[in-house]
Design goal:
heterodimer; A: 139 residues; alpha/beta; Nucleotidyltransferase, domain 5; four-stranded mixed β-sheet; 4 strands; 12% strand; elongated; B: 139 residues; six-stranded mixed β-sheet; 7 strands
Chain lengths: 139, 139
Amino acid sequence: MRFSPKGKRERRLVVELTSMVDIVFLLIIFFMVTSDFARDARAEVDLPLLQGERAEQSEEAGLFINIDAEGNIILSTSESPVTVEQLADRLRKLVIQETTPKVTVRADRNASIIRFNEVIRALNESGVSSARIATEVPR
Amino acid sequence: MRFSMRQHRGGNRLIMNMTSMIDVTFLLLVYFMVSTVLASPEDRLTPTIRTQDESASGSNADFQPQIVDVLMVGGKPTYRLGQIDMTSVADLKARLSGLPVELGVFIRGGEGVSVGFTMAAIQAARDAGFDQVTYVPLD
């Protein structure tokens, strides 16, 4: 039998990590759920502050056409803006690939309606009869 | 003299080394915190798209189409329904609520107005109970 001498007793600090690990996992889950991995397709624009149709958001995202306040047409934040003609080409290819392509127009609320109308005409001429127009739900 | 609890109770206490797991967990947490952008909730409006040529082809129909023109009148963005001009979306919604919804409504966006002001007309039509809302870009 081994007795530990009183002066040299080994003290081991045990930190209870269970609660902290619980909280950290909860935080990870929160950030994973709220992360938007499709941000590349969504440029920073001030969408019209409207309730929209209160539709469920579980549908396929499709093609995003962003129109910023200056009237630039942006298909991807990692690419440079495109012209209306380039957009029309892209849409024609999309219609060939998919019979009913899903298209979302994300136009800045301060953008001129002229550029928006050009995009709408390009959609119509390419055979897209309906488009989703993104709105920002007012808080 | 007091012996250790483990020996006293005769049970084995399993001590897991959680250091590596916590390292990885914190790395994940930091990654998600840095990469997450909390985007505002978005919704959408889904009007049918028609060009002026297409909408004109239906003018021989038996019914008078209900049209809201969004245009600049005297330097002010205005909604025009028949002969009535309105600058407020609430007024437009009130007027639209008195119209038969089964005929649908056409929203025509013209030069000079903003996207936000025009989309508010589509929202007003939806709020007034119209299922068939058609957007026509004006030249």
